[in-house]
Structure formats: C-alpha cells, structure tokens
Amino acid sequence: MPSRSPRRDAAENRTALVDAARTVLQADPDGSIETIAAAAGLSRRAVYGHFPTREDLVDEVVTGGARRILGTMPAAAELAPLLPDVRIATIAAALWAEVADVRSLARIALHGPSVDRIASVFAPLRAAVLDACADGVRAGLFRDDVPVESLARLVEGACIAVLDEATRAGTSPADGHRMVVVSALGMAGLDWRSSLHVLETVPPRTPTVAAARASASAARPVTPEPPA
Fold it and tell me: N or C: where does the chain have the smaller number of CB atoms within 10 Å of the terminal CB?
C-alpha cells in the first residue's frame, strides 16, 4: 500500500481544523484553541502549526465562508431584469438563506477583526445593492433624502441589524426572511405594507453552502497527529 504524502496529511488536517473551528465557533463564538483542536481530533500544537494565532484561524473560517456565500448569490443576469425593490429583496433573501443557520459565525464576520476583509469579499454584492438603490432613486421608488452611497450602506446596515436581532431572539428562518426583506426595503424608503407586497414575490431560498459543507465534512478523513 503506498504511503500517504505528508503534504496531503497536512492539507487534510488544516481543513479539519477549519471545519472544527466553524462548528465550535457557531456554538460558542469564544471557543478556545484547545476546544477546536479537540473537535478536530488534533493536538493544540497542530493548530499552531497551521495558524500562528487564534485570530488567523477565525479569519480563515469567516473569509472562506464569505467567499462561499458570495458564490451562491444571485448572478447579475438574474438581478438585471428585476425592479429595484425586487432586486433589493432578492439579495436580502439570498443572504439570509445562507446565514440563517450560521448566525454566530456571521456576526463574528461582520463585527470582528476581519470585517474589512469581509467587506472586500462582498464588494460585488455591495455594488449590486448600490446599483439597485441608484435605480430605485432615479425611478422615484426609493428615498432621495440621502446620497445614494449612504442609502446603500443603510440598506446593508438594516440587514445586519436583522441578523443581530435574529441571533439574540432565536428568530425562525421564515420570520427572519420576512424581517430582512421588509427591513431592507423600509430603509430604502418603502412603507411596510408595500414591502410586504414585494415580499410575496420573493419566496424563501434554499441554502446551498451549509448543505455542501456538511456533505464534504462527512466524507473527509482526519489524519491523527503524532504524539508530542
């Protein structure tokens, strides 16, 4: 039987650490390196062989998650024919679908030391929100009392506020879907009744990242580290 490559073992162990950190931090955002190492079936020393600090490991988890989520977002071709309010609702609903089951991790990403990197990862999606806001203002559909750049950031902030409250309150995925769409549109300038009407055209989406991650993790072996 051919021997395993040390490089392959190291890559698999690094992936196991990231997967374990994702699980631990979702349950406890303050989860320790020791807890993460134990969940991965590895030693504490092994963690530092891959990540110099806990912050580096957390950054790997949240930025990797952000990139995967970005890949599930509606494409420009899907958004282009939609009215501005439906575009905003579609983006908000898609984001909520992907973070509803990983709320603690999402809050770490949006409020932790990696926030600037997360903003950079999501730059294409933020540009889509800005375009929708600009189109909505030009059409007289959205409020025009603030610069459109500020409006786009306020819409983003409304979505983040829903995530924070949904995490604190244990809001159901269905209620969170409604809250995030109505809140984003309300910040854009629609009244709540009009926002609910738009909501009817944007059904909840099925999350894709969590299902793919669970399948990959179940199939991935972990190579034990040699004893210290």
Answer: N
- Per-residue model confidence (pLDDT) at position 225: 52
Map residue 21 onto helix, strand or coil.
Answer: helix
Residue 15 in contact with residue 197, Cβ under 8 Å?
no
The H-or-E segment that residue 201 falls in is: none
* 45 and 88 part of one domain: no
State the Cα–Cα distance between residues 96 and 151, nearest whole angstrom.
20
Total tally of structural domains belonging to the chain: 2
Give me the torsion for CA of 48, 53, 54, 56, rounded to 10°.
-110
Domain range for 140: 73-207
Q: How far is it between the farthest Cα atoms of the chain? A: 71
Contact 114, 63 (CB under 8 A): yes
* pLDDT at residue number 6: 54
Q: What is the pTM of this model?
A: 0.85
What is the reported pLDDT for 10? 86
